[in-house]
Amino acid sequence: MGSRLLIARVVARLCASYLAILALVLLLLDGLAFWWLAGREHDLLEPLLTTDVGRATYDAQLRKDALGLALLDLPLLLAAGAASYGLAVVSVRPLVEAREREARFAAEAAHELRTPLARIASLAQTAQDAGALAQIAAIAIDASGTISDLLSLVREEHVAPKLSEPVDLSALARAAVDSARRDGVLYDVLAGDECWVEGDERRLRRLADNLLDNAGRHARASVRVRVEPDGERIALSVEDDGPGVPEPLRERIFERFVRGDDDDRGSGLGLAICRAIARAHGGDVVLEARSRFVARLPKFDLT
Predict the structure, then answer these.
(1) Residue 8 half-sphere exposure, CB side, CA atoms within 13 Å?
(2) How many CB atoms lie within 10 A of CB 153?
(3) From 60, 99, 183, 196, which residue has the greatest number of CB atoms within 10 Å?
(4) What domains are defined for the chain?
């Protein structure tokens, strides 16, 4: 309710401001129009202005002109009021959407953190051996990881990259694969030459790490990584041989805390962070086919 009241106040103030400006403009135009009409009436009645009848006629005509201008302004003010309200609503819409995103983000974060904290509290009350304490530590580490991902997502969504430098996406992808290798999973990497993009290497490495971490969690036996030119962009694709994203989730997989039923190890934030990083660099990340995620970033021309 407080948020709605604040937005209503902002709309009212903006509307009043727009109306005040339009009223001042109309007042100025009315003054100019009245001055021109008075001058014209004066020229027409000038031979008679020395008589009582002439002056009365002149005064009556001025009152008529003033009334006509006022009547003309009335519908204009009504239309201006409606236009001002519409303009105010459009101007405030980003604020409304931002506050809705804030509220949704806070609710999602609270929901995701409530479960591990409740488990920690429950285990702490019954902890009698090292095993229970180890479980508490593991859950706390998972909760800490979720918080770190939340902070990363907020930073990626709201802080533009401050560092802009040529980045070899092929070298970056190979380094990310070396860090992500898992026992029992074969990584097939094909990274071409001259695949340069421009941006913050640390953030782009986070993008590649998250895509590979996501693929590694779902892969049955292999992960396929490709870096290659794609028109005016460089494409980094990561595909696993797992079951893929369920059809109902394909439109929502990049939303915060959205994950498949079989994914109990992820925070549900990795892909959202990937998309935020890519878009901050002028690119995007999309899901193609059932389990192939492709990040496309603007190509950097070394020449």
Answers:
(1) 5
(2) 21
(3) 196
(4) 2-100 (no CATH), 165-298 (3.30.565.10)
Please report, for residues 105, 226, 266, 268, the alpha-carbon distance to residue 108 in angstroms, rounded to integers and kept in the order given.
Answer: 5, 34, 15, 11
User: Which residues make beta-bridge pairs with 82?
Assistant: none
In the chain, the amino acid numbered 55 is R
Q: Are 48 and 42 in contact (CB under 8 A)?
A: no
CB 277 within 8 A of CB 167: no
| Residue range 26-46, pLDDT digits in tens | 778 878 887 887 777 777 777
**Which residues are CB-contacts of 171 (< 8 A; sequence separation ≥ 6)?**
191
d(CA 166, CA 143): 35
Q: Give pTM, 2 decimals.
A: 0.56
Residue in the block written with tokens 């990795």: 270
Residue 191: name the closest of 166, 226, 224 by CA: 226
> Mean pLDDT in the chain?
77
Tokens of 135: 């479980």
H/E element holding 298?
Answer: strand 292-298
What digits encode the pLDDT tens for the residues 46-101?
777 677 777 787 778 778 877 777 777 777 777 766 776 676 667 667 666 666 66
Q: Which tokens is 252 given?
A: 């929502």
